[in-house]
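Memo to structure team: turn this sequence into structure tokens by end of day. - J.P.
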Amino acid sequence: MDKALQTMIENMPEKTGKSLDQWKILLQSKPFTKHSEAVTYLKVSHGVTHGFANTIVTLSKEENNSPEDLVASQYKGKEELSPIYDQLISFVKQLGEDVTITPKKGSVSIIRNKQFTLIKPATKTRMDLGLKLKDVPITDRLENSGPFGTMCTHRVKIASVDEIDDELKAWISQAYEKAQ
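Reply from structure team:
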């Protein structure tokens, strides 16, 4: 598990008054249909900060899957994309100790103070890399955000490890710097 996420879970009882398992039980008794409804409930009714509320709701939805399980399920049937994912993760870990890697059901968020990159297996043969690069022009390779909507400003389609080149690494580094 990512060190920052593990620390957050360990600090949860002290910071929020309940353990993650206690929050999960509480949320299971509520009929929330949207992620944001559950986050708002925790913030308003229990005084939980947004960061903890978002983490609690996200982890509650993931049926106790570990981050490793979540990543593995993303690449089931798309195993040829795993080397691309592994190389991207290896690179983002080198950017700084303040990088948090947060697997979700369908993607992996890369966060500094805010999300700056999103890794998503889009098809069996292609990975989509979402980047937050405000005020950076779109090019043939650095497309508009497409299906990422407002979560990212740009998208790069990656079909092989060879496409993780200096240009792509520069865009990821730039997104990291902007996420201060």
